Write the structure tokens for this entry.
Amino acid sequence: MRKVALVIMAAGIGSRFGGGIKQLAPVGPNGEIIMDYSIYDAMEAGFNKVVFVIRKDLEKDFKEIIGNRIEKIVEVEYAYQELTDIPEKFKDKLEGRTKPWGTGQAILCCKEVVHEPFLVINADDYYGKEAYRAAYAELIKEQDETEAADVCMVGFRLKNTLSENGTVTRGVCSVDDNHMLQEIEETYEIERRGDYAAAVRDGEEIRLDLDSPVSMNMWGLKPAFFDILEAGFHEFLSNVKKDELKAEYLLPRIIGQLLKDGKARVKVLSSHDQWFGVTYKEDKAAVVTALGGLVERGVYPERLFEER
């Protein structure tokens, strides 16, 4: 069986691990957290390796809460995202900074432990089964080597990614008739208004179709992409000014720029599943209710992994 990895970005979940951190709040009927459902769906789709991207200071608690359980049922590796893990010549950029360098650095940290096609997800997002099946089918395809990076992205319907408890930020995608990404625009303060969504872009309010495809940071990549990330990270750090203490090397922006430069091809895979997340503390109750409903309908067993 071909090896395909699931990379879970969990380095930003906070130092009070398990003590009220919203991403790690139990949401399943037996105390499962969102990551449990993500791993279950990925394994069901065919993924056979899990890579957790965490911080060193979280390692002990992380393994106690989820890592030690998961490594009994699937191959597990760890990658560590640290603020200080940058080339020596850029160490002067660390002065006064407390924030890590973003999702691009998080994925780059996996270079030594990921040698197969892989899917990137957020630790605190529930994506649904359809997304993993579509991504797995795409990642196991044989593709010709070209100068352009072959990337896939799972696109969700905007209406399935909104919160009832406040506005959200989404990467709104333009997709051609061949399901190829043309552009991705970061769009802020999105909220539902009846049969459409309102949002802010470039300081102005705009109207969005509720069926617009959006990115939820679910990217399918190949190992060759690490070289692109590494070169880009050097360029990013070269251009960061010392007072830009919150500048981040972000995966959507990286891929968006590669797309503009003709250095990437991005296939958009479609999912009609409902996305769940804990953007706001108040979202937890809705997630618990939604997952409880999925268990009642038999989409998930009451106890995950018990039959494996």
